[in-house]
Amino acid sequence: MAPELDPDFESLVDYVRDNRGFDFTGYKRASLMRRFQKRMQEVGIERFPDYQDYLEVHPDEFTSLFNTILINVTSFFRDDGSWDFLTTEVLPKFVEGKRQGDPIRVWCAGCASGEEAYTLAIIIAQSIGVPELLKNVKIYATDVDEEALAHARASVYSARAVEAVPSGLREKYFDERDEGQFAVKPEIRRTVIFGRHDLVSDAPISRVDLISCRNTLMYFNADAQSKIYRNFHFALQAQGYLFLGKSEMLLTRTSMFSPIDLKRRVFSRVSAPGEREQLLPRIGLDERLRREVFESATIAQVVVDAGGTLIAANGRARAEFGLGDRDIARPFHELELSYRPVELRSRIELSASERRANKETAVVLATASGEQRYMDIEVVPLYHEGEFLGTSVLFTDVSQSVELQNELERSRRELETAYEELQSTVEELETTNEELQSTNEELETTNEELQSTNEELETMNEELQSTNEELQTINTELMDRTGQLNQTNVFLESILGSMQAGVIVLDRELIVESWNGLAEDMWGLRPEETRQKNFLGLDIGLPVEQLRKPIRDVLAGSVDSAELTVEAVNRRGKRFQCKVTASPLTGDDGVRPGVILMMENAEA
Question: Contact at 8 Å (CB) between 121 and 212?
Fold first, then answer.
């Protein structure tokens, strides 16, 4: 009779399966319960429900739990007698049965930290040589413990770990490093492909010549062992071999495997008609149906093979990114999709190297119409039997979700702002009430001040009336003086106009103040063209530079007047001798504010 199951423990096992994907259903309950309890003692917990609560609060505890459950006991050349038999009796048989160039496939199930997988690679290399090993041999090493697989991929071991390796093989297939570390040589490392695989729930690797599964099955119950043995039987070639550990027997599986050496736990596969076909997946049952499922998917999807070539794009992807039949079989890096809307090549390489999917959320995609859309882009590596086949890239339109999220965020911010404004308004109202009370008091004071100011304004009004009368008197005087000034200007213009010589009046800066009609007739410039312009800058037929010094002398008072005759050209272009007389203007204080130039024809 089967032992009664503890419901609390089964609930804990189901929780681990649902949250971390480790299905321990097929493990022997007594052994599995001991491993759980060992870890629970280390963290100070007695009851299974309490430990489940602990896992919910401390997700990092899963790693320590798995390291406790998955007992990674292994070593190089463990049970050396069994390895000697495998090397001398088994390997030669299936190597000799291979034709030139045929692949040799080996599956090391439950490889832990990789020692037995590398041992298999070493004995095969010794048998057929390293060049043939690299060319034709694939060793698939699998385990459910990712931490152990990471150690195996690093392929670096301590001096104690490699003590079991014969010294000649250690020198040939290992590189010694600092601090007593030994690294498996790259040519051996390249032959072994490590990957996560659950013997109970995952499909078996197929068409293998040898399966090594040593001291792993003893942790599973009878039902799980039966399923695993059936999978091993399916996975092996017709002439394949099964290599088990000392703690495992096959006495109840004689219909599928026949012992070659029971002591060393080496068995050969027994063909059973129809059994392999029962395990074959439904690949090829309806290829068109799967093609239609891919083609009609509601999310865009493209597939890139291991060589970086685009090999498939469904209808949504072709419509979304403008892909056509001409783009299929093109190098992916030549397509715009490889770098827009996001750089995909590095993400594809990352997913392949880390052997896991990576995802970019809410990537902005600008459409031809200028509209912005958002997509989640997931890059998923594709493996079969541990071999990297390519990458699937999925584009999920999340525009509506992003818009809703943005709208929710905007509403939340607006609500927070409104609440802050309401609080601020309440405070302002309280402050305003206090200010109004203060303002009322100030208004009363201001009213008194205004009455006083009104009295002052009346006084100022009387003063302004008096000032206005004074301004009117001044205005009358200015009008009289303006009239006198106009008369004086008319008088001066008459005098200048009646003179029989050209007259120009300059100020101290040699700016033209007056220009009579004879000067206009002589030089061709009207008075309005010359006023407020520098005399020396006028373009006339008079050589004004020759007059600079005489004019400066008169202004400086060094001479009372200056007279000189220069050759000039009148407005008609006729040359003549021009007599120029410079006389000073005299101010009230004796300062000469300007100069008068009189010009006449010396030949007349």
Answer: no
In Å, how far from its chain's centre is CA 536?
72
User: How far is the C-alpha of 143 from the C-alpha of 197, rounded, in Å?
Assistant: 5
Answer whether residue 479 is part of any domain: no
Per-residue pLDDT at 71 exceeds 70 = no
Q: Count of domains in the chain?
A: 4
Average pLDDT over residues 137-157: 87
Residue 204 burial by Cβ neighbours in a 10 Å radius (0-12, 13-18, 19+): buried
Establish if 362 belongs to a structural domain. Answer: yes
Residue 280 has pLDDT above 60, yes or no: no
Query: Considering 69, 92, 111, which residue would you say is the last residue of a domain?
Result: 69
- CB proximity list for 32: less than 8 A, separation 6 or greater: 13, 24, 69, 219
Residue 191: which domain range? 80-274
Q: Are residues 268 and 361 in the same domain?
A: no
- Do 85 and 211 fall within a single domain? yes
Q: What is the DSSP string of 483-525?
A: HHHHHHHHHHHHHHHHSSSEEEEEETT-BEEEE-HHHHHHHS-
Identify whether 134 is part of a domain: yes
β-bridge mates for residue 394, sequence order: 301, 378
- Mean of all residue pLDDT scores within the chain: 82
- The model carries a pTM of 0.45
Taking 70 as the threshold, does the pLDDT of residue 91 lie above it? yes
Last residue of a domain, one of 401, 424, 455: 401
DSSP E strands in 62-136: the ranges are 104-109
265 and 172 in a common domain: yes
Residues 248 and 348 reside in one and the same domain: no
* Residue ranges in 97-221 assigned as alpha helix (H): 115-128, 130-136, 146-154, 167-173, 186-189
Contact 346, 369 (CB under 8 A): no
Alpha helices in 243-389 (DSSP H): 275-279, 287-295, 315-321, 345-354
CATH number for 190: 3.40.50.150
**In whole angstroms, how large is the CA radius of gyration of the chain?**
54
* The token pair that represents 204 in the structure block: 């078996």
